[in-house]
TrEMBL record:
PANTHER family on file: SURFEIT LOCUS PROTEIN, SURFEIT LOCUS PROTEIN 1
Official protein name in the record: SURF1-like protein
A GO BP entry: mitochondrial respiratory chain complex IV assembly
Bilayer topology term: Multi-pass membrane protein
Record field: transmembrane: 90-109, 303-324
Native organism: Arthrobotrys oligospora (strain ATCC 24927 / CBS 115.81 / DSM 1491) (Nematode-trapping fungus)
Taxonomic superkingdom: Eukaryota
PROSITE patterns: SURF1
C-alpha cells in the first residue's frame, strides 16, 4: 500500500467524479503529463447544411434571367416611345383659340366705333359753331337727333311753381341739384318746353332762400331770353333708381316723364353761360343756377379700347402658339411597356 504509484496508474484509479473533488491546480498538474486534447470535428448534419448553403449561393451567383419562369423579355413585350405629358383636350384648345379671335374681333369693332364717334363729335362741333337758331313754335320730337348740340334761342316765362330739382349732383366737390324749369312760350303762340338752367347748391334748393339772396335775378318773373343747346334725351342705365314725382324726388332726366308731369313738350334746352371765375362766383352769390359750357362733352376712349383688345389678342396668340408648337424635351419621353401587344 505504501508503494509509489505512477501518475498514469493514479489517474486510472481516480473515481469518475474525482474532478469535482480535486482542486483545479492538481488537475492541471495531473493533465500536464498527457498530450493536449483535440476537439471532435463537425457532425454529419452540420456538414449537410453547409453543402446545401454553398450550393444555393453558387446557384444565385450564376443564375441567368432566363432561368426565372416569370421573366419576360423585350421581345415578348416590345417598348414604345411616348410623351409623358398629357395631350391637350380638343375643348381646351378650342377655348384657347377663341380668346385671341374674340379679342381681335372686339378690337376691329372698336375701330368702327372710333370712326363713328369721331364723325359724331365733328358734326356736333360743326353745329355748335353755327349762330343760334330761333326755336320754332312747335318742334318735331323725332327730328331732335339731327339737331343735337345745335345752339338755339327762344323767349318765354319760367313757371317756377313747376320747377324740378334733379339730383343730388356734385359740382366742384359740393353737393347740389340741377334746376329744370318749364318755359311758357304762349306769348309767341308756341309750346312750353323744358329748360335745364344749371346747378344750384343744396343750401339754396329752397326757392324762398334764392329769392332772399338773388331776388328777381334768381327767380325771374317776366319774359326772359334763353340761349342754350338743343339736346337729345339721354338714356337711362340699370343702376339709376326710378323717379318719384309724387315725393318730389327726381334722379334721372327722363324728358318724357318730366314733360308729362309739367305739361310741356318733350323738348329740353340746356342753358349756356360764359364759364369765367367771376361769372360763376357772381351766380353762386346771387342764387342763380350755373349753366353749362357751350362745348361738346362726348367722351371718346375707343382708341384705348383698341390698344387693349389688340394687345390681348397678340398676347393670347403667342400663348396659343407656345402651347401647340412647344418642342418636346428629353425628360418628357420614357419607355412604356405595351401590355396589350398582339
Amino acid at each position: 500500500m505504501s508503494a509509489i504509484l505512477s501518475p498514469r496508474r493514479l489517474l486510472l484509479r481516480l473515481p469518475s467524479k474525482a474532478s469535482s473533488t480535486i482542486c483545479p491546480s492538481c488537475t492541471r498538474r495531473i493533465t500536464s503529463f498527457f498530450p493536449s486534447h483535440k476537439p471532435k470535428g463537425p457532425s454529419s448534419f452540420q456538414l449537410t447544411l453547409r453543402r446545401t448553403y454553398s450550393q444555393q449561393q453558387r446557384q444565385q451567383q450564376y443564375q441567368q434571367p432566363g432561368d426565372n419562369p416569370n421573366f419576360s423579355s423585350v421581345l415578348d413585350q416590345p417598348a414604345r416611345l411616348v410623351r409623358t405629358n398629357r395631350r391637350h383636350r380638343p375643348l381646351g384648345l378650342i377655348i384657347l383659340a377663341l380668346i385671341p379671335l374674340t379679342a381681335f374681333a372686339l378690337g376691329t369693332w372698336q375701330i368702327q366705333r372710333l370712326n363713328w364717334k369721331t364723325s359724331l363729335i365733328a358734326r356736333s362741333e360743326d353745329r355748335l359753331s353755327r349762330p343760334p337758331l330761333p326755336l320754332p313754335p312747335v318742334l318735331d320730337v323725332t327730328a331732335l337727333p339731327d339737331f343735337d348740340y345745335r345752339r338755339v334761342a327762344t323767349r318765354g316765362k319760367f313757371l317756377h311753381d313747376k320747377e324740378i330739382l334733379l339730383g343730388p349732383r356734385l359740382y366742384d366737390g359740393e353737393n347740389g341739384y340741377i334746376v329744370i324749369t318749364p318755359l311758357d312760350r304762349s306769348l309767341d303762340h308756341a309750346s312750353t318746353i323744358l329748360v335745364n338752367r344749371g346747378w344750384i347748391s343744396k343750401g339754396l334748393a329752397d326757392k324762398r332762400k334764392r329769392w332772399r339772396v338773388g331776388g328777381e335775378r334768381a327767380l325771374p318773373s317776366g319774359e326772359v331770353l334763353v340761349e342754350g343747346l338743343l339736346r337729345e334725351p339721354p338714356k337711362k342705365n340699370s343702376f339709376t333708381p326710378d323717379n318719384k314725382p309724387e315725393e318730389g324726388k327726381w334722379y334721372f332726366p327722363d324728358v318724357k316723364e318730366m314733360a308729362g308731369w309739367t305739361g310741356a313738350q318733350e323738348v329740353m334746352v340746356e342753358e349756356t353761360m360764359d364759364h369765367t371765375i367771376l361769372a360763376i362766383m357772381d351766380r353762386q352769390s346771387k342764387g342763380v343756377p350755373i349753366g353749362r359750357v357751350p362745348e361738346v362733352n362726348l367722351r371718346n376712349n375707343h382708341f384705348q379700347y383698341i390698344v387693349t383688345w389688340y394687345s390681348l389678342g397678340i398676347a393670347t396668340s403667342i400663348m396659343f402658339y407656345l402651347v401647340i408648337r412647344r418642342p418636346p424635351r428629353d425628360i418628357t419621353k420614357k419607355v412604356r411597356l405595351q401590355k396589350d401587344w398582339a
